[in-house]
TrEMBL record:
Keywords: Hydrolase, Metal-binding, Protease, Signal, Zinc
Entry GO CC: extracellular matrix
Originating species: Albidovulum denitrificans
Residues annotated as signal peptide: 1-24
Name of the featured protein: Peptidase metallopeptidase domain-containing protein
Span of domain Peptidase metallopeptidase: 113-270
Pfam families per the UniProt record, alphabetical: Peptidase_M10 (PF00413)
Amino acid sequence: MRNDIQSILTAAPLLAMLATGAGAAPLTPEEGAAELKRLAEEAREKAAAQNYEAFRATVPVVDGTGKFYVNGDTPIRNEKLLREFWEQNVRSAPPAPGGDDVPEFAVITVGGLDQIWNAATRHALSYCVSTGFGSRHTTVVSEMEAATAAWEAVADLDFIHVPAEDGQCDAQNPRVLFDVRPVNAGGQFLAAAFFPNDPRADRSLVIDPSSFQLDPNGKLTLRGILRHELGHTIGGRHEHTRPEAGTCFEDANWRGVTDYDAFSVMHYPQCNGLGDWSLALTARDMSGVACLYGAAPGFQIDTALCQPAGGGTPGVQNLGPFDVAAVELMQIGAFDVAPGSRFRVVMRGEGDAPGDPDLYVKLDGLPSFADYDCRPYNTGAEEECDFDVPQGRSQALVGVHGYSAGRFSLTVTATGP
């Protein structure tokens, strides 16, 4: 969860902003817009004047996660992705999607593909809660149960707490999908999470001590913070990334599922949001996430807000090994896929010097540096793309780029028409 709106690109300390956002009377959208727009543009212009090294020096790195943090609670997991963020969103202002009717619940995209959990994983969203919380462990367990229940009540999702893993609850634990653990971020954020396309080593929901030091009479609570962060873990972007918000714009890597919602749990009140610090799910949040994942039993999607999506069975191909030169973009092949089916390609390094090849997947078109639907962009040769094929798509084309020269093999799992 974001700490301070004064910097649109780098996280600055939170608590001064919260004193205004949670304690005093909220600004009107008009009052907030004028000041926030000035601060946002000032921060962007200042950052754009820097070279990459100067920008990097201003980006918080939290020792407990090893990640860079931009936009307050948005983690960037490696140097390659941070440099790309600077090139696309700092040195150049990110493009705002056009059109007057931009379809709220906003989902993160990579290329043109929604980054959400596939049909198998969405029913096994397992997590542990670190005993490192000490006397606060029971509180975090109960607040996580309440926050996950809010999303499970409307969407076909199953979050599963695995208490047996609480004593070994860190990013290296492969027996849970993600970990919930304490981190000392120095007040840079209250809590921060991850997106579904992040690898296991980066799937942590971390909570700063400041989340336990909130005004007991205020509307901002640990439960509300966790509802917001869990929204990220299932693919939800900040609602104020949309141009309609007028401020706090981050980048263009999102797709609207419903109409814009200034009251959304994913929209900060200080970013021209009209909700409050309770961070509760709105009707659009509920139908939006249900359209992505299917409705929970007993929940009715409001089809005036969004239209639900749609299932599948696989064949496996083992390909390689291949050698890719530095800077080369090697087109591996096209694989027929059925809408609603699961497509998965796993890349593994081969030999003593696997290098740093990058996996690219594009639906119904050749992947390129600028046009792809999945690109993990990890450091090293271990990468994976795993997603449900959207309606109207019939082929998945796979390519590999040599960020540096490398040797790799691929396993492709796909279901044809």
